[in-house]
Each structure stands twice: as C-alpha cells, then as structure tokens.
Design a protein that fits this description.
Distance between the termini: 31 Å
Strand order of the largest sheet: 1-4-3-2-5-6
Largest sheet: 6 strands, mixed
Number of domains: 1
CATH superfamily: Glutaredoxin
CATH topology: Glutaredoxin
Structural class: alpha/beta
Shape: globular
Strand content: 15-25%
C-alpha cells in the first residue's frame, strides 16, 4: 500500500519520521471490518491481571502515556498464537525490555473454549514463553454475551491479534499478527526519538 492511501491521522502521527518507509509493513490498513487504527485507544476493561511474576495486579492503559504499548491478544489453544503470536511477542519484548518508553501486555481474549482458555493459562504462558510481562484474562461476562471487552472495544477479529498504541494514546496498528522485524525497526527509531 502506498503512503498516499493512508489516513491523514496516521500520516500526521508519523509526519517527518525517517521510519516512514516501514509504514506499509507495520501500519497498514486493518483487515476490512476490523480494528480502530487512528482512533484514541479505549481503556482496557479486563477483570483479571497478573504481573510478570504471576501475582495479582492491576493495569491501566491511561497510566502508560508517554510509552508505546504493545498488546498481544491470544488464547491458550490457538495454534497461530503459538506459531506466530508468542514468538513475535518474545522478539519484541526482548528488544525493548529495558526501555522506559515501551510496555508489552498479553491479554487472553477468551471468546471460545471457556473450559480450556482459563485464567490459570496466564501464568502457564508466561512460563512457557519466558515472558515476565503483565498479562490479563478477558472472557467477557453475561452483560457482554461472553464476548471479551477488549475484542469489542478494539474490534479485533480473533487471535493472535496485535495492537500498537502510540505514546499519546492513539492506535497505530490493530490487526492479525505483526511483522516482528519491521515493528522492532519502527519502534527502535521512534523510541530513540522519544529518549533524545
């Protein structure tokens, strides 16, 4: 996709960016009918959180302003999550684990397989993939018809689903998967700019 096909809000977010060449790989148009790219990121309404050590925690997106937030939506029984989602998350987390300008988050958005994709899988996946990051479990409730709040508010289409939020709280990317190398190159340059 050519840059001229991108929305004005996305072009404005990256105006003057030397990393604009990565735009087609990282910030492409979302799968038709899905995503909220370019919009202000809604607060996460996730009822269960654990910290990187598996202890009960809380997480507020509004407290992450000034950082890039990378959300990986997954389910424990999702083959694509294990073949692509978690390995991508591992690469991105490893690259920016010490950066004060980056916050990775994993959220199990259980929209099926409620007896398998349970909250105990948060810690299981942390250990399996050596990810000491905040993770949440969002299975929705009776008010949402058991549809995860995160899926509804970000208009995701399943798992693995990647969301990148800018330091000013706008959704930069919102789609199935993400190219880890292109995302790392983009984030490296943008984080360097933030820290300058």
């Amino acid at each position: 996709m050519k840059i001229s096909n991108f929305s004005a809000s996305r072009r404005a977010l990256l105006a003057g960016s030397a990393s604009a060449f990565l735009l087609p790989k990282v910030l492409h148009a979302a799968t038709p009918g899905y995503g909220i790219t370019g919009q202000v990121a809604p607060e996460l309404e996730v009822p269960i959180w654990i910290d990187g050590e598996g202890n009960p925690a809380r997480f507020q997106l509004s407290e992450q302003r000034g950082k890039f937030v990378f959300l990986e939506l997954w389910q424990s029984w999702c083959p694509g999550c294990h073949s692509h989602g978690f390995p991508t998350l591992q690469k991105i987390v490893a690259e920016f684990k010490d950066s004060p300008y980056f916050m990775p988050v994993g959220i199990q958005t259980t929209f099926e397989g409620y007896l398998i994709n349970t909250e105990d899988k948060l810690r299981t996946m942390q250990k399996r993939y050596n990810l000491s990051i905040v993770m949440g479990h969002d299975a929705g409730d009776s008010a949402t018809g058991r549809r995860p709040n995160t899926m509804s508010s970000y208009r995701s289409g399943g798992t693995p689903w990647a969301i990148l939020i800018s330091p000013d709280g706008r959704v930069l990317y919102n789609d199935f998967g993400i190219d880890a190398g292109a995302a790392i190159d983009y984030l490296r340059e943008e984080i360097e700019r933030l820290s300058a």
